[in-house]
Input
Amino acid sequence: MHIYSQLFAVLAFGEAFALAATTKAKTCTTSLTPKYAAPSLASGYVARLVATGLTTPRSIKFDTNGALLVVESGVGVTALTLDESNPSCVIEKSRKVVVANNALNHGLELSPAGTTLYASDTGSAYAWSYSASKQSATSRKTIINNMTNSDHTTRSLLLPKSAPGVLVVSRGSNSNLDPTSENISSGTAQVKAFNITNIKQPLGFTSSGKLLGWGLRNDVGLAEEPKGGGIYTVENSADQITRNGVDIHNTNPSEEMNFLGYLNGKSSPNQGRNFGYPECFTAWSPSTIPAFKGKVGQQFAIGTIGPGNNDKLCSNKYKQQAALGFHPHMAPLSILFNPSGDTGWVTFHGSWDSTVPVGYKLSQVDFAKGAPVQPSNSTTAAIDIMSNANTANCYNTTCFRPVGLAWDKNGNLFMSCDTTGEVYVILRTDGKPTNSPRSS
Output
């Protein structure tokens, strides 16, 4: 059973503290207050602001001394020193710019020993020698290059624990509907894995690496499922799509969770396949797709349907379908698993291409045996944990827009919000770590 219900109550921060005081979570009198309506939390959770005033914070990662490393897009990498003496009341003590580089925009990783820092800009991924005690990064070298393209410019990074010495890199497409991505040699709309052990020269993205998947429009979120070692992504799908001249963009296509196989020696038929983009997309609302006979989770062709452009060419025989779909335009940007592998946490940054705002929230997806519990045709796989008080008004007023996720040493969940320049911590009100197994 879940510890939360799927019903939401808007918890003002004072009310959240009162709730915490009646449980094992301690009262926090030093928390910051957001400059917008307090977020809504699912029963059993409380969220508290840890830091404000950051410049477009994106990916986050804890170093071995407990400092939170933050990519501030357009600034570089910043270390936040936190006071976690009371895990229920984390506060920022100080911050320091570790890497001053205004080209860095999203990607961030740290080696298992905590001595090598990785970050990326639109064209390259870099490595620095990192000292957690000094909060300093030195001796930069380029490890992956030749990734520059327009539109989708973030280059997400992942170091899978099951494959030491391997760096996974996601590269998006050149545009909303990018015809160059139909060519596997373009290198766009792809996720690849690179052996970066003892490299002497930068590895070219297009010419090097192991292809995990292509036809992946903009898979910003990367994660390794901890029990089986499967590589999962979350994808931002296309905007403004039509079919047979009918605008269907409000209800299709789904955002996606994709399974790209393994890097630990296990085999998977998914690995290296084409996932459909820019020809095929995942159905969220089949009834609104003209002349479509498929179901939720199946792929469909866009544009004018005919002999050379039809849904048969989008079947799983030719294109790998998504593991799960999410409501169109919610813009998933991160996925992070708990250690038991029974929960994947997903940030939904929020829409621009939807008549009614959607996303702007943090959700959970239930997993078991290395795969989502819900089938690929589910429309209820995302279980909302933290959302804006009035998402329907997010086009007209300030809302938090979540991006990065990280676990601290206590098992509590930290989340960056880029447009508001914030970092939150999400706690369980029963005092257990946020990353506890789902059944606990």
Observations:
- Helices lie at 13-21.
